[in-house]
Amino acid sequence: DIQMTQSPSSLSASVGDRVTITCQASQYISNYLNWYQQKLGKAPRLLIYDASNLKTGVPSRFSGSRSGTDFTFTISSLQPEDIATYYCQQYDDLPWTFGQGTKVEIK
Amino acid sequence: QVQLVESGGGLVKPGGSLRLSCATSGFTFSDYYMTWIRQAPGKGLEWVSYISSSGSTIYYADSVKGRFTISRDNAKNSMYLQMNSLRAEDTAVYYCARTVAVAGTRGLDPWGQGTLVTVSS
Fold first, then answer.
1. What is the per-residue pLDDT across B14-51, written as a single tens digit (0 to 9) for each?
2. Which of A6, A70, B58, B72 fits B79 for a cystine, CB–CB 3.0-4.6 Å?
3. Which chain B residues are within 8 Å of A97, Cβ to Cβ?
4. Torsion angle in degrees (nearest 10) through CA of B13, B88, B81, B111
5. Residues whose CB is less than 8 angstroms from the CB of residue B5 and which lie 6 or more positions away in sequence, other chains included
């Protein structure tokens, strides 16, 4: 199985801060990676697909990028409504696997 | 609008069975792959199974293979997960998700609200 190592597991930042989350794949997965947001008690929501494509309707402060097997998810200016847990997910090969999640809190 | 509603969760004893349903509306169900994902209490997400639009292609996670069966009824715009020989480690919220499968792109969007399955004696 492809392992997705996501870090950090949690972070605390101030409103307006730039927040960065990383996911490292255990093998090459091209751009076959998505990012999801899960608010407390809710279902996850797709934010970014194919590593860097923003889903329609998702605020532009969210972005994603890839360098080799390393993937980065960025919130350019953290807002109170961004409090959530974020997950990466690879779909290069079955079983589809998720990172462990990053819980984002407001400082 | 697109809606997915899971049902069928509940408390079941180890070794028991449950059948989950995912009722959909707001899109052409027969055009989409569908996926089940689960989340144990306080834990991360685990992909469980997916089924192609026609039902001809099915995959399972090793953790449920041989015990769970995914199916769909395109006439009823619904997907199902028959869960047999349930174990304590199957305790989780089970989500269904519409699965985008265009060229090489795959995405789980949107998700249902989830249904809780608790396996306990």
1. 999 999 999 999 999 999 999 999 999 999 999 999 99
2. B72
3. 47
4. 130
5. B22, B23, B24, B112, B113
